[in-house]
Every structure is written in structure tokens, then in C-alpha cells.
Q: What sequence folds into this?
């Protein structure tokens, strides 16, 4: 536990300071992984069967791993396992998850609480249900800052406005005092991202974070995530049912189906030389029915 | 699978429009637009010169407003759109663009404040409830909803749902059942599903049942409101393939979606709705490869793609600033 | 629906209780061993071979009075429930379809009825129409009808805005068609729940009215009346109110059980519940209810 807290306090990068980003280039591959998922199997204790059959990936600062799969493929369970919030009767049957060098199997509930938000954080599909409708959104961000960073009331407020600014909300002061029903879906998702990065986590999991949004808003959120990755050296896990969403942002892609990882590799390789039939279907959908049908032609 | 989108023009009068002459941003008012759009101008009840059949759907200058007094809001303003026989038109619009209002106005579920709507040459704008019912009973226009979970009555078997539009028309039960079987086959479902309840079907199966229900009356126009948005890839492709087959039967489709990507592969023409106005109309290729209106440009650059250079973040940011979104 | 209710243990218990009560109502007066109105010298007697439940302050056989009074009590509560159903549910469904005017008027009427204190109102109406069980029950029925109005209206509203009703309308279905085919099935379960509940409430109302002497003239026995007269002689026979009170309680409980059972089995969740039980009973090995296939 001491190593963990040491790591957090000794962390050199100041987030949101431009020009201070961790280089996502070649050095990243040699850096020790922030998040290492090793052959994780998740089983349902009640039904007594495996839901996820072995998922492995490693994530280093400034890098992005994408997980693609339809609903029920086990991608969300994998994310929840990494956050230590598996639903009641699910458990990690085999394999290990290491966050910043610490095996999560050794963590107590208190350790998890300290870890979540400060080291690993997440945003999910329906932002409205993760925010309290009767509390101003700014106060909810400030609360995270006060609890996780130990800041005073005034400092926390200042920091919350800063965060709202960092997620490209145009009038952060105004948004600070608003309630959830006054904000659009895209704005709510940005508020949620601000909450998620409030305690300067090093890993951010975006689980279908853009699925319910309009396409232009989705692009904005994806741009924002890319931006945060570059500026703060955030490591991202992007989960989506849409291969195109994942391929925009990710260095490495895992394709999951019915709990199995059917394809894994660098994004470029997966897109150009898909080996599994399901990956080919995902690609074909875009090439035959999506914009790629027209855009690919232009390239040729 | 052809990669070439071949918009079959039933009139044959359409000349290929050189991209250079398309300078206007508002398709309706741009003089240098394609022949299709000129032909699409409302010509009243008399079909144009020669043997050109009237478009299946003619919408001209449609305006729909909601609410009263200070809270009055314009959902659609001056929307004109024509759909020819066997043509697939994609209507792209995001939340609040008025795309659902457009669909509901065409179906007579929302009353227009101004403008005309003609279905198969028949002006339906002044229709009262009774005349709408008579029109609907002919089964000319059908609708497919976004949410396959709620668009089928949970207490009716698949067979009951499928035969309903026919029974309403007065088709004998046996004949209706036979037709239901045929169309179940068309959407690649097996007959054993007929006795099941919607709750026992997967989302993809349910949406195919919904498509089959829209087809049993052999409509000339089907309006689809986000028909694939709630589905996963495999089911999405399957529905799109079924819809593609429909075109060769001469069924006109109005495919409404928030996502340019899901419409691109199937639409002959694309119309872009932005804040209640049609900002751009053109062939799918033109709209995607040479978008003119900044909003269309933003849509194209925002749509996630696999290959092809996605537009730079900076460009998107500039477009957003331009549009004040 | 009936079969699904009977599949539940609570449903079976409820049906058994209510059947028994109904039998009592039909056959009660015939089964009474003695004349319920005949007085005798043995007043306030304890239970014995002659008088199974003892006698009251005029020496009348309590058991006979209970049996004889059941018809009035049961019929009364049924009358309340059916009146309420008719006066409430039908306008409730129609309020969604018959336009703004009808909707506004019925809504205000329902509000007004809720605002009236019903016992007082019942007393007032009886003063006008004359004392009789039928008048009293009709008035009470009208007064509890807002429950049915609200329940039916809410259920209809939920259905009326669903896409499948719109799909039917787009296919040219008439209002009657939509109500028959889509609305009725959805509105029935909540109404059945309300009905079962109202039967229970009806018992309490009939009992309290007769307890007050409204609706039924004093010599004629009812469960509530018995309870009232027994209460006057608690010092002599402290256990006497027990039997009529128990009868009322069990019947109300039966109605509530039935209401619960109907609620449990109605709707999609209910169907899933019953199916699950059946599946578990029949094929314990087949865990996955999802249908396979459908694709060619």
C-alpha cells in the first residue's frame, strides 16, 4: 500500500499544464504498464458458468486500448473488474489485474476506495444517472475534489470550474451552478468526464461513453478524450460496440464476442488484416453501409 | 456487393450534375442543382410533362409549430422534399432537428401549420381524421419505429401483430395469415416464430418483425425512424440488406437517422435537417464527398470511420465555432 | 389470467376464501338452524349445543344471525365494487380518447368525489332517498369510483402513447379496434386489482354503515350490525364480537390476497414469473429460456 500512495504523491506530471504531456511515442512501450489485465476470467457464481473467458491487455501512460463487442460480450464486466465494482454474484475466477504494479486481489475495500478516482476512473453510457439531479453539477465535482484531494471549500470550487473548463464547456462558471436537467446529453457527459478526472486519475475507462449521443457530440467527446490523453498523459480504455469509434482513438484493439477475445492487435493490423470472421463483419458493415464506402474510394 | 451507389432515376430526365456548379448552400434554393431537385418541385396534382409519374411523396414548404404564445417553437420550417418511386432518401438530423416531427407530419400524426404534403399525388394536407383513416387503410404508407422493444404489443403473438394491418383493411383472416408468412420469410425469419410473443424474441428479430409488419400491406412508401440504431452490427447489416432488396420492388423509403454513417450505404439521396430546416439535399455521394453546408461538413467529419482520414480535430472545432453549437 | 392466478399459492388461498364467503352468502339464510329474528329467554348465553355461538341481548341465536346476515354483507360489497367499476373505469378509458372537454369534466368530477367525506355524504343521500341498503351501496360505489377512473385512465394513457398503438393507427385502425385489441388487455389487470381491493373495502363500508344503522333496518342482521350490538355487552360476553370481526377480517384479507395475486401475475413481469416457475418445475436442466434461431 505504501508503494501505491508513494506513486501517487510522487507523480511528476501536473495535469492540464500544456507542453508537459507524457510522450506517447516509442518510450511508452517500454514504460511499466499502468494497468495490466492478465488472462482474466469472470464467472457468475449463481449460474456457475464463465462469462468472460480470458482477457489480457496492458496499458501504459498516454496509450489507448479499445474493446469492441456487442452487448453481452463481456466488455463491460471486464471494465468493472478493473474498477473493482463487479455486480454481486460475479467474481474473478482466474487471472490477475494489476493497477500501477499492485495486484488488485490484495486490495481491501478501503484500498479500492483510495484507488478509484485517484488512479483509475470511469465514465459510462448514461451520464444523467450518475449525477444527482437535486445538486448543482459543480458542487458534485467540488465534492470529489474535496474528498479526494483534501482541498478547502473555496479551492475546491475554483478547481471544479477549472475542470469544467478543461472539458471544453464554454461557460464553466455558469455550468457550475446548473442542475442536470438544464444540460444536454453531451454537456452532461462532459461534466461526468470532469468528475472522473477531478482527482487526477492516470487511467480513464470510457464504457460506451458516447453511445447515446448525437454523432457530432460523440466526435466532440472523443476529441476531448484524445485531448486529455495528450495533455495529461492519461491512459484510456475505450469500450464501444462500434469498431469505428474505437479505431479513431486506440493504439490497440480487442474484439470480444461471447466472453472470448476473438481478435487482438494494433489497430492498423486489425483493420487491414482481420483474422476473425466477426471482425470482418464489423469492418464490412462500415465498408458496405457506412461512410467508408465513399471515403475509401476517394483514397484509392 | 456493389460499391457503386446507383440511384435509379425513374423519370430518366436526370442529367448528371457537375460538382462545380453546386455552389449554393441551401439545396432547395440553389439554381444550379441537379435535375432531380428541379423535377422535385411541387407541381400540384398534375404530373409533369410527358409520362413522368407523380412522386410517391411530395412535401413542400412544410412548417410545423408546437406550443402556444411565448413558448411557441418551430419544429420544422419550409421543408420541401420529394421521394420518387423506388427511391431511398436518407434524412439526417440530430436531436431537436425536427426529424421525428417530419415523419409524424407525413403520417398525419402531426398537423402542419403551413405547406403541402401529397402522397401518391393525393394532397393529404386538409384531411380530417376520417379521410386519414381511409387513406391509411389502403396501406400505402407504413412506418417502422426505432425501438423494437416497444413497437410490438407485448400481449399479441407475432402472427397477430403481423396480420393486424391486413385485418384492419378487411382482409380475411386466412389470407392475412398466409401473407404474414410470406413476409416473415422476406425478413429471413422462420414460421415457428409466429406463435411466439415479442418478449421471447431478440432485438434483431423483433425489428425484423416490425419491418415485416410494415410490408404486409405492400406499401409504396415506408418511413423508417432510426430502424437500426438500437441493434448490433450483425442485425444492423441484416436489416439494411432487407431494406436494399425492397428498393428493387419499387418501394420508396424515407430513412431517418441521426447518423450519416448508417444511411450512407443505402440512400440514393440524402437530406440534412438542421434546427428544423433542410440545409442540404443531394445524392449520397455528393453530400458525403462534397458537403457544402458547414453543418453537413461537421456531420461528415464527425461520423466515425475506419479508414479514410477522419477530419482533423481543428477542422471540427472551427466548424463548431462557425455553427455556434 | 384465471389459470395464472391459480398457479400461485396465495391466489389459491384467496379464491378458496372468497368461494367460501360466496357460498355463505348464497346458502347462509337456508343453513341458519334457527330463526335469526326469534327472541328467546336465554339472553347473552354462552356457546352451547343449542346455540353454537351463544345468544345476544334479546336471546337471538348469534350463529343464525351471522349466516343470515352474510347475504346482505356480501351483496352489499359486491354492489359497491361493481358500481364503482362501471362508473369509474369506463369514463377512465374514454377520457383518453373522447377529447379535451370530456377529459376535463370527468377529471374535475373525480376530484370532487374524492374531496367529499363519504360517510357523511352517504348519510345525507340516505336522508334524501330513504334508508335502504341498495341506495347506500350505490352512493358508496359512486364515491369510491375515482379509484377506478384513475387506474383505468393511467393504464390507458400508458398504452395510448405506445408505438404499437400508433402503428395500428397508421395502418388505419379505428378507435374501437385499438381499445379492443390493445388497450383492454392492458387495462384489465390493474382494474381487476382495484376491483378485488374495492370488494374488501366494500365489506368494511357495509359493515361500518350497518354498524351505524344506515342502510339496514335494525332487526335485520348483518355482520357489521352484529359487531355493533355485541360491543354494547362486552362486560357480559367479552369474546362475542370476535366472530363477526374475524369473518369480516378474513373476507377482506381474501380480497386483498386476490388483488395481490392478480397484480403478481399480470403484465410482462407476471408472465415471466409464472413461466419461470413452470420452467423450473418442468425442466430443471434447461436454464436458458432465450429462443434460438429464427435466422435461416
A:
Amino acid at each position: 500500500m505504501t508503494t501505491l500512495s508513494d506513486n501517487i504523491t510522487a507523480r511528476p506530471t501536473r495535469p492540464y499544464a500544456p507542453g508537459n504531456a507524457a510522450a506517447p511515442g516509442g518510450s511508452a512501450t517500454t514504460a511499466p504498464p499502468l494497468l495490466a489485465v492478465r488472462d482474466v476470467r469472470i464467472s457468475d457464481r449463481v449460474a456457475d458458468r464463465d462469462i468472460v473467458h480470458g482477457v489480457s491487455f496492458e496499458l501504459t501512460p498516454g496509450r489507448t486500448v479499445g474493446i469492441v463487442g456487442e452487448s453481452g460480450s463481456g466488455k463491460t464486466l471486464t471494465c468493472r473488474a478493473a474498477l473493482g465494482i463487479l455486480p454481486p454474484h460475479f467474481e474473478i475466477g482466474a487471472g490477475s489485474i494489476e493497477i500501477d504494479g499492485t495486484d488488485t486481489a490484495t486490495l481491501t475495500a478501503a484500498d479500492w476506495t483510495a484507488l478509484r478516482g485517484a488512479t483509475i476512473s470511469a465514465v459510462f453510457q448514461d451520464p444523467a444517472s450518475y449525477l444527482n439531479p437535486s445538486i448543482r453539477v459543480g458542487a458534485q465535482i467540488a465534492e470529489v475534489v474535496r474528498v479526494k484531494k483534501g482541498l478547502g471549500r473555496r479551492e475546491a470550487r475554483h478547481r471544479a470550474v477549472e475542470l469544467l473548463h478543461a472539458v471544453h464547456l464554454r461557460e464553466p462558471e455558469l455550468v457550475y451552478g446548473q442542475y442536470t436537467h438544464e444540460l444536454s446529453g453531451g454537456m452532461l457527459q462532459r461534466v461526468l468526464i470532469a468528475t472522473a478526472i477531478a482527482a487526477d486519475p492516470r487511467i480513464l475507462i470510457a464504457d460506451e461513453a458516447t453511445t447515446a449521443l448525437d454523432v457530432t457530440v460523440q466526435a466532440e467527446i472523443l476529441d476531448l478524450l484524445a485531448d486529455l490523453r495528450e495533455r495529461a498523459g492519461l491512459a484510456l480504455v475505450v469500450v464501444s460496440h462500434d469498431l469505428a469509434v474505437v479505431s479513431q482513438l486506440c493504439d490497440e484493439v480487442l474484439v470480444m464476442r461471447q466472453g472470448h477475445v476473438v481478435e487482438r492487435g494494433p489497430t492498423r493490423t486489425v483493420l487491414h488484416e482481420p483474422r476473425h470472421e466477426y471482425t470482418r463483419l464489423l469492418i464490412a458493415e462500415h465498408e458496405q453501409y457506412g461512410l467508408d464506402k465513399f471515403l475509401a474510394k476517394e483514397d484509392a | 456487393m456493389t460499391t457503386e451507389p446507383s440511384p435509379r432515376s425513374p423519370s430518366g430526365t436526370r442529367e448528371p450534375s457537375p460538382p462545380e456548379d453546386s455552389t449554393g448552400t441551401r439545396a432547395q434554393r440553389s439554381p444550379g442543382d441537379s435535375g432531380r431537385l428541379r423535377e422535385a418541385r411541387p407541381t400540384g396534382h398534375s404530373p409533369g410533362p410527358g409520362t413522368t409519374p407523380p412522386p410517391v411523396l411530395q412535401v413542400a414548404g412544410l412548417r410545423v409549430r408546437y406550443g402556444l404564445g411565448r413558448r411557441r417553437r418551430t419544429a420544422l420550417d419550409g421543408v420541401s422534399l420529394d421521394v420518387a418511386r423506388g427511391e431511398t432518401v436518407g434524412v439526417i438530423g440530430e436531436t431537436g432537428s425536427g426529424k421525428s416531427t417530419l415523419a409524424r407530419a407525413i403520417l398525419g400524426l402531426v398537423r402542419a401549420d403551413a405547406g403541402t404534403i401529397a402522397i401518391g399525388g393525393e394532397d393529404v394536407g386538409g384531411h380530417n381524421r376520417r379521410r386519414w383513416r381511409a387513406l391509411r387503410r389502403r396501406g400505402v404508407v407504413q412506418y417502422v419505429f426505432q425501438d423494437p422493444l416497444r413497437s410490438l404489443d407485448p400481449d399479441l403473438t407475432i402472427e397477430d401483430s403481423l396480420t393486424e394491418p391486413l385485418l384492419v383493411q378487411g382482409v380475411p383472416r386466412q389470407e392475412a395469415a398466409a401473407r404474414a408468412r410470406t413476409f416473415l420469410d422476406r425478413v429471413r425469419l422462420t414460421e415457428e416464430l409466429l406463435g411466439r410473443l415479442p418478449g421471447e424474441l431478440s432485438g434483431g428479430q423483433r425489428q425484423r418483425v416490425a419491418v415485416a409488419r410494415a410490408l404486409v400491406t405492400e406499401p409504396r412508401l415506408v418511413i423508417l425512424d432510426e430502424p437500426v440504431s438500437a441493434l448490433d452490427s450483425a442485425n444492423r447489416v441484416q436489416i439494411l440488406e432487407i431494406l436494399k432488396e425492397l428498393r428493387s420492388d419499387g418501394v420508396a423509403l424515407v430513412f431517418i437517422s441521426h447518423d450519416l454513417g448508417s444511411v450512407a450505404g443505402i440512400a440514393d439521396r440524402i437530406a440534412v435537417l438542421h434546427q428544423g430546416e433542410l440545409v442540404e439535399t443531394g445524392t449520397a455521394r455528393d453530400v458525403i464527398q462534397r458537403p457544402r453546408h458547414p453543418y453537413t461538413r461537421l456531420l461528415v467529419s464527425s461520423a466515425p470511420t475506419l479508414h479514410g482520414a477522419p477530419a482533423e480535430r481543428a477542422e471540427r472545432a472551427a466548424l463548431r465555432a462557425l455553427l455556434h453549437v | 389470467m384465471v389459470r395464472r392466478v391459480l398457479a400461485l399459492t396465495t391466489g389459491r388461498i384467496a379464491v378458496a376464501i372468497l368461494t367460501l364467503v360466496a357460498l355463505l352468502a348464497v346458502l347462509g339464510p337456508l343453513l341458519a338452524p334457527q330463526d335469526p329474528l326469534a327472541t328467546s329467554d336465554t339472553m347473552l348465553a354462552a356457546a352451547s349445543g343449542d346455540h353454537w355461538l351463544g345468544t345476544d341481548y334479546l336471546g337471538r341465536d348469534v350463529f343464525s344471525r351471522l349466516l343470515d346476515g352474510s347475504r346482505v354483507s356480501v351483496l352489499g360489497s359486491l354492489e359497491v365494487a361493481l358500481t364503482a367499476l362501471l362508473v369509474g373505469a369506463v369514463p377512465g378509458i374514454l377520457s383518453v380518447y373522447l377529447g379535451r372537454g370530456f377529459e376535463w369534466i370527468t377529471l374535475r368530477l373525480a376530484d370532487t368525489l374524492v374531496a367529499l367525506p363519504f360517510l357523511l355524504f352517504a348519510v345525507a343521500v340516505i336522508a334524501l332517498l330513504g334508508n335502504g341498503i341498495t341506495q347506500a351501496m350505490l352512493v358508496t360505489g359512486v364515491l369510491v369510483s375515482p379509484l377506478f377512473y384513475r387506474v383505468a385512465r393511467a393504464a390507458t394513457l400508458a398504452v395510448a402513447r405506445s408505438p404499437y398503438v400508433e402503428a395500428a393507427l397508421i395502418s388505419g385502425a379505428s378507435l374501437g379496434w385499438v381499445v379492443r385489441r390493445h388497450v383492454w388487455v392492458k387495462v384489465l389487470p390493474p382494474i381487476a386489482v382495484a376491483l378485488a381491493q374495492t370488494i374488501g373495502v366494500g365489506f368494511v363500508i357495509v359493515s361500518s354503515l350497518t354498524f351505524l344503522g344506515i342502510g339496514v333496518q335494525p332487526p335485520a342482521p348483518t355482520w357489521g350490525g352484529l359487531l355493533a350490538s355485541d360491543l354494547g355487552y362486552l362486560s357480559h360476553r367479552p369474546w362475542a364480537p370476535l366472530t363477526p370481526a374475524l369473518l369480516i377480517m378474513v373476507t377482506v384479507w381474501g380480497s386483498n390476497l386476490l388483488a395481490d395475486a392478480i397484480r403478481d401475475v399480470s403484465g410482462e413481469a407476471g408472465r415471466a414469473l409464472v413461466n419461470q416457475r413452470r420452467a423450473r418445475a418442468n425442466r430443471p436442466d434447461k436454464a436458458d429460456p432465450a429462443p434460438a434461431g429464427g435466422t435461416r
User: Anything to note?
Assistant: Chain C touches chain B at residues 162-164, 166-174, 177, 181-182, 185-186, 268, 271-272, 289-291, 293-296 (CB under 8 Å). Residues 122 and 139 of chain C are 6 Å apart (CA to CA).
